[in-house]
Amino acid sequence: MLDDMDRRILRHWQADAGLSPGELAELTGLTSGKVARRIARMQEAGIVQGVGTVVDWVALGYAVEVSLRITLDKTQGNAFDRFLAAARTLEEVIEMQTFLGRVDVRLSVIARDMAHYQSIYREKILTLPHIADIEALMHVARIKADEVLPL
User: Fold this and answer.
1) Starting at the edge strand that comes first in sequence, how are the strands of the sheet with 105-111 ordered?
2) pLDDT band per the 50, 70, 90 thresholds, residue 26
């Protein structure tokens, strides 16, 4: 699947996603053509799923993040699908996760301030279908937010 050179390319690319194939070639000792082919192969295999931009939502004026743990009323067969479809439409929901266990879904919600969050909660979150229970956890600090894999 991945050889040592692929791992070396990925380590450098994870450290700085802005590196060009030419710059990766200098760091790995390959030609830029070989690096580009290896990257294309890893993209085709689904190992590399894209290179994107990380936007700091705090810098854009969003000062509040709340994690909502939601238990759904699953007495109707399509409760999960209907809830997830509706929650996806909320622009303030920046992350959704599903679980096995008492908690079914976790939503990460951002807001400008507590008044804005209260409005989102009352007008948008509470109108989502099939909610049986919600637990809100206010984020205090993000200690680690890293998706770099140990390659």
Assistant:
1) 93-98, 105-111, 64-72, 131-138
2) very high
- Residue 113: count other Cβ atoms within 10 Å of its Cβ: 12
144: left (phi over 0), alpha (psi -120 to 50) or beta: beta
Same domain? 73 vs 129: yes
Instruction: Judge residue 70's burial from the number of C-beta atoms within 10 Å of its C-beta, 0-12 exposed, 13-18 middle, 19 or more buried.
Output: buried
- 58 token code pair: 């705090």
Domain coverage including residue 87: 64-138
Tell me the pLDDT tens digit for each residue of 44-90.
999 999 887 888 999 999 999 999 999 999 898 899 999 999 999 99
Q: What's 9's domain CATH number? A: 1.10.10
| pLDDT > 70: percent of the chain | 100
CA 55 to chain centre: 12
